[in-house]
Every structure is written in structure tokens, then in C-alpha cells.
Amino acid sequence: MMDVLVIDDEGDVRDALRRVLERAGFHVRVAGTGADALAEIRRAGVDVVVTDIIMPGIGGVETIGTIREEFPGVRIIAISGGGNFGAGAYQPNAITTSAYLAAANRAGAHHVLTKPFDTADLLQAIGQYSAVGHA
Amino acid sequence: MRIPLTAAVAAIVVLIHAAALPALYFALSGVVRTSHERLFIDHARTFARMLAEQLELEGPAPAPQRIRDVLDLAILNGDGVYAEYLDDRGSVRSQLGRAGLDMPAQQDFNFNEHGDHVYFLKLPISARGHFAELRVGFDETPTEESIKLALRRMLTILAAYSGVSLLIAALLGLRFSRPIRELQNTSRAIASGDYAKRLQVESRVAELQDLTADLDHMRRTLVGVNELLRSEMIEKERAELRRRELENDLRHRQRLETVGTLAGGIAHEFNNALLPIILFTEAALEDLPGTAPVREDLSRVLGSARRARDVVRKILTFSHKVEGTTLNVVDLAVVVDEALNLFSALAPSSVIVTTECEARSAPVRGDASLLLQMVMNLCVNGYQALGERDGRLTIGLRRVSPAGAQAGSTGAQAELWVRDNGHGMDEATVARIFEPFFTTRGVGQGTGLGLSVVHGIVESCGARIAVETAVAAGTTFHVFFPIVEEAA
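Predict the joint structure of the above. Result:
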């Protein structure tokens, strides 16, 4: 069974991803921060990482970079919902979601998805790369 | 006190004459009188002496009849009116006219002495020891008449001279006042705004010529200063207008940016909230048996969540956060063609759709599907502005050269426009049309996102949008795209 690590600072998003991925037959672990995620991968390894990009602490782009460096075989899917705001943090010079996703791409993500996406989009993204990974 | 120049000159002439003419008259009349009198007296004395000599030639003590004959002849031929011969024998007298004319005690030395209008002379006669006295009288009246006539003539001449002088003075006054009037009229014209009017007079008077030249120099200086002031004022007004435009533009942009940033933040939150809704609902639907009655409810939840996602995507489009877009070189002409086909198929037959595509190709940087959406949104917006009535919608595309392009841009541009002959908009509406959820339509007739999406797409392509509208005069949206050179 393929191991998937979901990284997102929002509990509902983590739970929803875990629900659909487990239902699809993956073994799913979750992490709320980039640091926790890196610790978990170093501890037990992983096949696929689905990570948010805008997170407090170690951000998604940095996390992706580190994983790519330490675990080049891991497949990475980056997801983002736009803007670098938290609930109250207003930043007028916010860069665009597509820019974040592009940054994730450059950092080494294999696929990028815009929130909200359908289950099928996610499974297709994982399937595509896991197929490549297992080929 | 105000005196016209002509009157002033005439008054001066009159004053000069009033002072000079009486003096002249008295001087001349003295000369006339004296010359007449002297002539008369000389004549009288000569005549008397000649008579005395004639009587002396008659010898001592001539016969009284002889004396009378000589005296009568002398009076008849000469100017005398009275002649008397006196000697120790008595007197012989001959006289004309006035009877009883007697010589006064003293003979006359001056003309018109004693008031008797007769000039009397006494002359001694001696012929070989015989002594006698000759008394002669001359009528002064003709000479007095001559003097009076001469004086009258002189008065007439002087009067004529005064008249002519006055006339000349008046003419001179007019001659001087005409150029001054001209100057005055020109100055008034200049004062009332006709600065181009040149100051000039036709006069040989040096002072007038100088004055005119000085005044015209002043006028030219004034015109220069005036022009300078006017151009400065126009420049200032222009700058002020430009500043206000820029300020309005900036305020508008800041407002849109603020709204956009806030909308982007809200969209982010919504996206994170929508993801679990969609994923959980999909999972639940998968897990439920095909006959479960709750499936339909969940399907509706999923449908609504996906619609919400679409709305959020539109908001993100407005706030420049277009997902997954890449800017390619797109031919705007092809996009317009496609939009036209699509819109013609959708629009009711009451709407006449025309095109004014001058440009056969217009390569711009953008996303083909977003540009199509932009054109479609503009068309739909125009169609909705037509309301219930029949209307006309025009889509145009042309290239504009840098000279004809809007200020602040360089290089060639493609101008896309969508024009409707609908109800138009007032200023307050125009100021807000690009704000998300701003709509003039009733509930259910639009989301208020169409034009904000257009704005987002325009900004993401580095293009610029302008609106031309007036209430009841229709609306035209102009979008200016920088043209991508074919070589690029």
C-alpha cells in the first residue's frame, strides 16, 4: 500500500484529504506543519507528499525543497488556495496563487493543484506520478 | 473742465484777436486819419498860398471888383468854400453854400478844429508897400467822409481776417484732433480685448507720431505679457486637469486594488472551506448505496459547492489571481471572431450585432480562454444595457499607432471596443462598475462580477480599459493591448 503524507495547517482540509485518499486505498498520515512533516518523513519515509504551500513556520516551498534534496524518490503534489493571508493578516503586496504554484514547481513539486479540486483531480495527479514512480 | 481740442484752438485764436485787433485798429485808424488830414492841410495851404500870390500879382490895392472876381474864380475852381480879402479899405468876400460863415478869431492849425467843419487859414499879402490879409476856408467834410470810408473798409478787412483765422483755427483743430480720436478709438478697442489692433495715425506732427509709436510699443508689450499669462494659465489648467485625472485614476486603482486584495483574501478562505465540503461530499456519495434517498441532497450540496467555487474563481480573476494562467501570444482577431460567433448564437434576434474589425490580426500577450471570456462578458454587459428594446451591439478591433495611442504608452497597440446603444451610465455608476458585486440590475439578473472579471483579465494582460458613456447615449468599452511584435 502506497504511503501518502498530507501536510496542511487546516484540520478540515487534512481530514478531507485523508478521507478521500484512504477511501481510494492509500495509507495516509497527516502533518500540520512543515517541520512535523519533515520529522515524520525522516522517521518513517513516504511515497507521496500532498502539501499546502502557504503555512506558518516552514512554508510549503521550503518543505518541498528539503524533501527533494533528502528524498529524491518521493513524489510531491503541491496544493494552494490563493493569497498569502491568514484570517487577519492583510498584505497588499500578496503575490498570486499561480505564482506560488509556479514557485512550488520550481522547488521540485511534480504536480500543482488549485483548491478546491475534485477527488478525481487529486487521484489522477497521484496516480499519474505513482504510476511513473512504480514503473 | 472738458474742452474739445477744436474749441480750445478756436478760443486761443479768439483771445489773440480780441487783444490784438483793437490795438491794430486804433494804430491803423491813426495812420489813416493823420495821412488824410496832412494831405488835406498841405493841399489847403498850397492852394491858399497860390491864391495869395495871384492877388499879389494884381498889384497894390486892386479894385474890389477885381479881387471879388479872383476870389470867386478861385473858389469855383478850387476846394475853398470861403475867401476874404481884407485891407485898410475894408473886406471883399466870396463864399459857397453856408451864408454867414465867419472865420473864428484864430486860424486853424489842426484838422477839424473849432467844430465848424471848415479849415480856416490867414495869409498876409504885400504888394509894393500895400499890406492886406487873405482869409481862406476849406470844407473839411469830404475828407471826413473819406476817413470814415477808409476806417469802415479797414474794419471790414479786419473782420474778414478774423473770420478766416477762426476758420483756419477750426480746421487745424480738426486736423489735430482727428488722429487723436483715431488713437482713442484704437486704445478703446484694445482695452476691450482686441489686442491685435495696431495703433497708427496719419499725421505729420512729430509728437503725435512719437506718441503713437510709444503706445503701439506698449500694446505689443501688453500683448506679449497677455499671451504669456494666457499660455501659463492654460498650461496650469492642463497640469491641474492632468493631476486630477491621475489622482482620480490612482484613487480608482487603489480602491480596486483594495477591493481586489480583500476579495483575494476572502477567496482564499473560501477555497480552503470549499475543499473539505467537496471532498467529503464526494466521498459520502461514493460510500452511499445507489438507492439512498440522501444522495440527492448530497448531490445538491456538491453542486452548490462547485458553483461557489466558480464564483470564487471569478473573484480571483478580478483580483489578478487567475489560477493556472500562462500568458501566451494570442491573436485578438481570432478571439473576437470566436466571441462573435458564440454571442450571435446566444443573443436574441432583436439585437443587431455588427463588427468593425479593421485589424486582420492583433497578436497580444494573454490567455485565449480568458480573453474570450472578457469579450463575452463585455458583449453580455452591452446586451443587458439594451434592456427590453431592440438594440445594436458593435464589436471592433483595430491597431492604433503610438501617435494615436493614449499617453503613457509606447509601441503599437490593439484597440478592442464593444459599443451598445443602450441606456448608458451616469458618473456615479461608471466610478464603480469594475467593483465586484456592483450591479445596476435586479436580483437574479446578474452576479455583478462580469465587469470586475473583465477588469481582472485586462490587468493580467497588461492592457488598459476605458469607458465612454453618457446617460441615454449608450456605452463603449475600449480595451488597449500592447501589440506583441511578430518577431518576438
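Chain B has nine helices and eleven strands.
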